[in-house]
Request: fold
Amino acid sequence: MTSSKNTICLWYESDAEAAARFYAATFPDSAVTAVHRAPADNPSTAQGAVLTVEFTVCGIPCIGLNGGPAFKQSEAFSFQIATDDQDETDRYWNAIVGNGGQESMCGWCKDKWGVSWQITPRALTKAMAAGGEPAARAFKAMMQMKKLDVAAIEAAVRGD
Reply:
């Protein structure tokens, strides 16, 4: 049973366990902590099939619910993963997109289960927090990118 007071619940059609295991293998401080099977048949799951999966993503407690096709993921929810450099940005982006996911704009991508991710270099966050013209230039550069380019963001901040 989950011990956190606040847990993110993500709805999956039927692959909550596969998604949780992918996240655990991809991100640090992530793990699958429990798999619970349906005690009886229900509208989305047969008795004995995986109903919920408890897991963490970068230390954030989550529950994946195999709820069937009634609801879909949307960009209204996303995990934002802060990265320290281009190698880390590339590693997470490529893991998500390369495992059946989809690229989007401005550092956003979706995994193959439809969950949205923002792979965000700290260089962008720092530039935006600084404000002023450097932030405006960094923002303008970011708006042209799919996967974020740390060197290009840093160049924009400098005005290069």
